[in-house]
Design goal:
26% of the residues lie in helices and 29% in strands. By secondary structure, it is an alpha+beta fold. It has 2 domains: 270 residues, Aminopeptidase (3-Layer(aba) Sandwich); 111 residues, Galactose-binding domain-like (Jelly Rolls, Sandwich). It has an 8-stranded mixed β-sheet with strand order 3-4-6-5-7-10-8-9, with helices on both faces. Strands 1, 2, 11, 12, 14, 17 and 19 form a 7-stranded antiparallel β-sheet that branches. Strand 8, helix 6 and strand 9 form a beta-alpha-beta unit. Helix 1 packs across helix 3. The longest helix has 21 residues. Keywords: Calcium, Disulfide bond, Hydrolase, Metal-binding, Protease, Secreted, Signal, Zinc. Its main location: secreted. Belongs to the peptidase M28 family. M28A subfamily. Monomer.
């Protein structure tokens, strides 16, 4: 079952999958010119991590600044990007008497005066290979960059990716990059997304609370998966986004936790144990065995979602765009309310005054049911309130004046069975923008 976005304005239009429901592996695909992101195969991300592990193994067990393992890591990532059609630049700097390197990769096209950039530090500490910290972020943005190339994506804004050196020594590489940008070039950066440790073995799901648009983009994505998030505090200001934030560039990002202990409340929310989010933080055991595949998968897909959304949101979807969830949701008999969600993205401004809400509920007695549409801000629009007597099913389209609501965000169909003896399920829920 997939949460999909369908362009249904014309016959033969294509399905665009945004994400998967919680508990299922995300399975997404993009159509050329669309704003929905493709799935980022976690197997590909893990292969990049295995390659970084091999580099560390061949170079004294680490990929730290000034060591052969770091330069080999830069060469590895650069070769992948060069082959994919990126314009790459290796930027050199000196720290503690040794040469450091940043790698910058630009995807051809897009408005050069509006740049969306994603970055991760590629160096490890000297005590280990640094596979979660920060092979995980580096591998995720590498695979996302390769997905851009595979799909032939041509966004409205210009895309840039960066891999930073000597972050572990005080954000040295990213500071050097930002400090050497002319003021006019800084002004072109409309958003910097930072990914540092996104596969922690005992993960949390943390979102930076810096730029509101970037923050909301990530929160909406995880809400669509049914995964709760918290504001990131452990590493605030300690990773490369601080270099950009300090000169006024909008920033945001994701994090799954480092040496702090996961609380019992967080265990209830996300699973895991009341131990460190990453027991191997800055240690020799930060290897490919120190990765939670589910967290890596979800966060890699979130990386792509944010890049696609933020780089292409000036494009308004064509008339008749449908955002749809076809996952079955059981409705408890005379029980608690249940919801089905769709994530709307790429729509400028507010929702329409004639928002079409398609409801497909299979139920043996629709007179038992209360059905509501819930906007992203929590506003409730009642669609059906125990009418229809003994007739079964609700399969119709309602029109809602949602013009006071921001269009983009997570919309929910809420259904509750208020009487006993009859059963059913939500078969589908869709929003059509005229």
């Amino acid at each position: 079952m997939k949460l999909s976005v369908r362009l249904a304005a014309l016959a033969g239009s294509s399905a665009l999958v945004l994400g998967a429901l919680a508990g299922a592996a995300p399975a997404t695909a993009a159509t050329a010119g669309a704003t929905a992101a493709p799935d980022i195969p976690v197997a590909n991300v893990k292969q990049h991590l295995a390659d970084l592990q091999s580099i560390a193994n061949a170079n004294g067990g680490n990929r730290a600044h000034g060591r052969a393992g770091y330069k080999a890591s830069i060469d590895f990532v650069k070769a992948k990007l060069d082959a994919a059609g990126y314009t790459t630049t290796v930027q050199q700097f000196t720290y503690s008497g040794t040469t450091g390197y940043n790698l910058i990769a630009d995807w051809p096209g897009g408005d050069p005066n509006q740049v969306i950039m994603a970055g991760s530090h590629l160096d490890s500490v000297s005590s280990g290979p640094g596979i979660n910290d920060n092979g995980s972020g580096s591998a995720a943005i590498l695979e996302t960059a390769l997905a851009v190339a595979r799909s032939g994506y041509q966004p409205d804004k210009h895309l840039r990716f960066g891999w930073w050196g000597a972050e572990e020594l005080g954000l040295v590489g990213s500071k050097y990059y930002v400090n050497n940008l002319a003021t006019t070039e800084r002004s072109k950066l409309k958003g910097y997304l930072n990914f540092d440790m996104i596969g922690s073995p005992n993960p949390g799901y943390f979102v930076y609370d810096d730029d509101p648009t970037i923050e909301t983009t990530f929160k909406n994505y995880f809400a669509g998966l049914g995964v709760p998030t918290e504001i990131e505090t452990e590493g605030d200001g300690r990773s490369d986004h601080a270099s950009f934030k300090n000169v006024g560039i909008p920033v945001g990002g994701l994090f799954t936790g480092a040496s702090r202990t996961k609380t019992s409340a967080q265990v209830s929310k996300w699973g895991g144990t009341t131990t460190a989010f990453d027991r191997c933080y800055h240690s020799s055991c930060d290897t490919t065995s120190n990765i939670n595949d589910t967290a890596l998968d979800r966060n890699s897909d979130a990386v792509a979602h944010a890049i696609w959304t933020l780089s292409g949101t000036t494009t308004t979807p064509p008339a008749g765009t449908v955002f749809e969830n076809t996952a079955d949701v059981s409705i408890p008999d005379n029980g608690a309310a249940v919801t089905s969600s769709v994530t709307v993205s790429g729509v400028a401004g507010n929702a329409p005054a004639a928002l079409a809400v398609g409801v497909d509920i299979i139920h043996t007695w629709r007179g038992d049911l209360v059905v509501d549409l819930i906007a992203p801000d929590g506003t409730v629009y009642n669609l059906h309130n125990r009418t229809g007597s003994s007739a079964d099913n609700i399969q119709q389209t309602y029109t809602v004046n949602a013009s006071s609501e921001v269009a983009n965000g997570v919309w929910k169909l809420r259904v509750q069975d208020k009487a006993s003896a009859d059963t059913g399920y939500i078969n589908g829920f869709k929003l059509t923008f005229p």
